[in-house]
Design brief:
mainly alpha; Rossmann fold; Serine Threonine Protein Phosphatase 5, Tetratricopeptide repeat; five-stranded parallel beta sheet; 5 strands; 48% helix
Length: 472
């Protein structure tokens, strides 16, 4: 088998060795492997923070492969052209990859698979990003789920294969193809001076992700059902960034949570439900691929949300004058992440108090989050706005002041990001673009709108839309 034709392994958001069906199958094949990462137009189009964090993940994975005597070949350009070139250079006869489920990636992968097969090459895709493929969990009528709770019940009832260990026996070709240099891609260019600020908040790579899961299951999972909503405490697993880039396998996380459940750990079931919420988001994104661009419910197409506007710009810059909203927006800009409770709060404030289209917020999150997940981002924004599947009704308007009082009762979280003398506040002003002209010495801004006034305005717009069926 040492003389068998090589396989090209096209890595994307699966930058790990363990719990990796494609790698396990490649090792079993006994063929030389050529690991490849392609900076294609679809990948290059992601937001600033996500692209920068991707670069960290690629570098860590390249080091991981180097420990096995393998190389991660980097190439830039349209995926099909790059793969055709590598097939010719290496004498490989097949290309394998882990499936992606967003609309643009599916279109790319479908075209690649068809073209490679037409040319006589093996083109094979594998599961690995989700617990269940989107077409595996369906209603009794054979259609996709539209509501989370029945989806959760159906998904939980399906078995999840045990995660496989990192495979042994992988080896490369006798002659390696040339590779781009990662630093020449300048994936962090759009981060500017913010990159150095955000870096300490990242835990990059497969080893760090495994440690993070072990730490969570060693204690915090017990209080997860309640602590997960606290803004002032680290009650979550923190695994979102690692799952986003495939630095840990979702099956490994699921089985870790199931072990905790069987041990009687109090928060384990809630943790498993949150993992399935991620699955539900991708289930919807696969079956309804416009969810990140169009109102899920067409009756919302006439709602008088504003396009981008000066109030939304104040929201982006964490200058709304509403302390909890501004604290959350600063936290995202400094850490690349935002607590889910805070995400709901700031999304509600933008779409309801400021009557701004949810897509304005979705795009800003996509640019600022290092754990950006296209499906979860879309579902979260539409759910809060009221226009999405299984959504909170529009009249459910989060009050940032009462949310902060409940989930940050001593105000420690707000002080961390708003107190001019705090490290968090200093980091924020060190990270923001200079053109914003912001300074920590400025007094806090006046509120864009009073909370009661904003709520009343939102409800009035909603009632007007209900009265006029042409609008909502």
């Amino acid at each position: 088998m040492a003389t068998a034709a090589p396989l090209i392994l096209w890595f994307r958001r699966d930058l790990r060795l363990a719990d990796h069906p494609m790698l396990t199958a490649a090792a079993a094949s006994g063929r030389p492997v050529v690991p490849v990462f392609i900076l294609d137009p679809e990948t290059a189009a992601i937001g600033a923070a996500a692209k920068w964090r991707l670069g960290l993940a690629v570098a860590a994975f390249a080091d991981r492969l180097a420990g096995l005597g393998l190389r991660l070949v980097l190439r830039r350009g349209p995926a099909l052209g790059v793969l055709r070139g590598l097939l010719a250079e290496t004498g490989a006869t097949g290309v394998w990859w882990t499936r992606a489920y967003d609309r643009d990636a599916r279109a790319r992968d479908t075209a690649v698979k068809a073209a490679l097969k037409d040319a006589g090459h093996e083109a094979r895709s594998f599961p690995g990003h989700l617990l269940h493929e989107p077409w595996e969990v369906m209603t009794g009528q054979g259609g996709p789920y539209r509501v989370y709770t029945p989806y959760w019940k159906a998904a939980r009832a399906q078995p999840v294969p045990a995660p496989s260990p990192a495979p042994g026996g992988l080896f490369g070709p006798a002659d390696w193809p040339d590779s781009d240099r990662l630093q020449d891609w300048t994936l962090g260019r759009a981060m500017n001076r913010g990159a150095a600020v955000v870096l300490p908040w990242q835990r990059v790579g497969e080893a760090a992700a495994g440690d993070r899961l072990a730490e969570f299951l060693d204690g915090p999972v017990d209080d997860y059902a309640k602590a997960r909503d606290r803004l002032d405490a680290g009650g979550t697993s923190g695994l979102s960034e690692n799952l986003t880039w495939g630095e840990i396998g979702i099956r490994a996380v699921w089985h870790g949570g199931m072990r905790a459940l069987h041990e009687g750990r109090a928060g384990a079931e809630r943790f498993l439900m949150e993992l399935v919420w991620r699955e539900y988001a991708w289930h919807l994104a696969y079956h309804f691929p416009g969810i990140d661009r169009q109102n899920w419910r067409a009756e919302w197409d006439g709602f008088p949300w504003r396009a981008d506007n000066p109030d939304a710009e104040r929201w982006r810059r964490a200058m709304t004058g509403e302390p909890a909203v501004d604290a959350a927006m600063r936290e995202m800009f400094v850490t690349g992440k935002m607590h889910n409770r805070a995400r709901m709060m700031v999304a509600s404030y933008l779409t309801k108090h400021l009557l701004t289209d949810w897509r304005v917020g979705l795009r800003w999150f996509a640019d600022c989050l290092t754990d950006w997940d296209a499906a979860s981002n879309a579902l979260g924004w539409q759910w809060v706005a009221g226009s999405g599947p299984d959504a909170a009704p529009f009249f459910r308007i989060f009050n940032p002041a009462t949310q902060a009082a409940k989930f940050d009762p001593q105000g420690r979280w707000r002080a961390r990001w708003l107190d001019p003398g705090s490290a968090g506040a200093r980091s924020y002003f060190a990270a923001v673009p200079r053109c914003w002209g912001l300074s920590a010495t400025e007094p806090p801004p006046a509120p864009v709108i009073g909370l009661a006034e904003g709520r009343a305005r939102a409800l009035a717009a909603w009632e007007a839309g209900r009265a006029d069926p042409r609008k909502t």
